[in-house]
Automatic annotation (TrEMBL):
<dbReference type="Pfam" id="PF22691">
    <property type="entry name" value="Thiolase_C_1"/>
</dbReference>
<protein>
    <submittedName>
        <fullName>Acetyl-CoA acetyltransferase</fullName>
    </submittedName>
</protein>
<feature type="domain" description="Thiolase C-terminal">
    <location>
        <begin position="244"/>
        <end position="387"/>
    </location>
</feature>
<dbReference type="InterPro" id="IPR016039">
    <property type="entry name" value="Thiolase-like"/>
</dbReference>
<dbReference type="InterPro" id="IPR055140">
    <property type="entry name" value="Thiolase_C_2"/>
</dbReference>
<dbReference type="InterPro" id="IPR002155">
    <property type="entry name" value="Thiolase"/>
</dbReference>
Length: 388
């Protein structure tokens, strides 16, 4: 049994991953999706459930993650309920990796599940236009400043500053759908064209419907463990090499530059701590609630210069991005950040259900990055993963 204390920082690996049923799931509860994903991830790891002494969960229950832990039959001694929107899971992964490295936990389960689509269809909830009207947000909500409008404003600013075009933004949606077409688990797989994206119904200028993420049901889980457990796992480990987190703003008036996301800081930190450069990375899983998020995050992670994202996303042989189809086409049940980690690990293991990234010689990639964004570019978490 691995020790719970250490005189050095232990290496941390992803040892288990899984999705629950995703897409259209009308008969399950969010708790059931949590449990399904957790059981599958544990089975994927080959470890016994008794090794889990940490739990990270957000978005479900009055006392998350206490209620989720009880439902799963766990009694963790390390917990995290950080909630910063879509970046939650990358931030939690950073916290969990630090806790394991320091000996405060040995194996931490990150788990998520949501029936966002089914709840609306069954009229258990309505679509949310904003996150609320208390605190600083009270100064924006009366003016109809909806969630999507904030992303749309940022996109328009980038277009104004750098000449980014609607066609370039549309290309992000086209490529996401092309990747989804190869993924049997994706919710929408029918190819789309730039013209079809541009001609769709307007949601918030400049975003038409296909510029926006889908709404699905689904869940997933990731199990992180200390290096001592790796010899007993069912599959080769994927190591957490470096992480970074950052929060920027909540009110738009406090956002200094609409063309810079918090990934500019979280990405720099993650790469520095991993000891790698963006040019070393072979694939990226990026939060894509809207097409602009993909474009600006690629810039801010350093894959291209600021203002060059429009040209970068149209490059024929560019970096593989959102290889499962992303939130724009594969699945988006709410806080999608944990799905980014699952897909990155699948790619590094060579287990991608659809598009599998390979090097020119046919070998598997060595380095991947998962970068989540929360709120309206309010927060970011970036995780660098590697096989070595």
């Amino acid at each position: 049994m691995p020790t719970t204390t250490t005189d050095r920082r232990r290496r941390v690996a992803v040892v288990g991953i899984s999705l629950s049923d995703c897409g259209r799931v009308d008969e399950a509860t969010p708790y059931a999706l949590h449990a399904q994903a957790a059981r599958r991830a544990l089975a994927d790891s080959g470890l016994d459930r008794s090794v889990i002494d940490g739990l990270a969960s957000a978005g479900l229950g009055t006392l998350a993650p206490v209620e989720v832990a009880e439902y799963l039959g766990l009694r963790p001694r390390w917990v995290d309920s950080t909630s910063v929107g879509g970046a939650t899971w990358e931030v939690m992964a950073a916290h969990a990796a630090d806790a394991i490295a320091a000996g405060h936990a040995n194996a931490v389960l990150l788990v998520y599940g949501s029936t966002a689509r089914a709840d609306i269809r069954a009229r258990r909830r309505t679509g949310n236009l904003s996150f609320g009207s208390r605190g600083p947000l009270q100064f924006e909500v009366p003016y109809g400043h909806s969630l999507i409008a904030k992303y749309a404003m940022a996109a328009r600013r980038h277009m104004h500053e750098y000449g980014t075009t609607l066609e370039q933004l549309a290309e992000v949606a086209v490529r996401a759908r092309a990747n989804a077409a190869l993924n049997p688990e994706a919710m929408f797989r029918e190819p789309v064209t730039v013209d079809e994206v541009l001609d769709g119904p307007m949601i918030a200028d400049p975003f038409t419907k296909l510029h926006c993420c889908i709404r699905s049901d689904g869940g997933c889980a990731v199990l992180l463990a200390a290096e001592e457990y790796v010899p007993d796992t069912a599959k080769a480990p994927v190591w957490v090499l470096g992480t970074g987190t950052h929060v920027s703003h909540t009110t738009m008036s406090e956002w200094e530059d609409f063309t810079v996301s918090p990934a500019a800081v979280s990405g720099r930190l993650a790469f520095e701590r991993a000891g790698v450069r963006p040019a070393d990375v072979e694939l990226a899983e990026i939060y894509d609630a809207f097409t602009y998020m993909t474009l600006v995050t690629l810039e801010d992670l350093g894959f291209c210069a600021k203002g060059e994202g429009g040209a970068y996303v149209t490059e024929k042989d560019g970096l593989p991005v959102n290889t499962d189809g992303g939130g724009l086409s594969a699945c988006h049940p709410g806080m999608r950040g944990l799905f980014l980690l699952v897909e990155a690990v699948r790619q590094l293991r060579g287990e991608a259900p659809g598009l599998q990234v390979r090097r020119p010689d046919g070998s598997l990639p060595e380095l991947a990055v998962a970068s989540g964004t929360g709120g309206w570019f309010c927060s970011s978490g970036t995780v660098v993963l590697g096989r070595g």
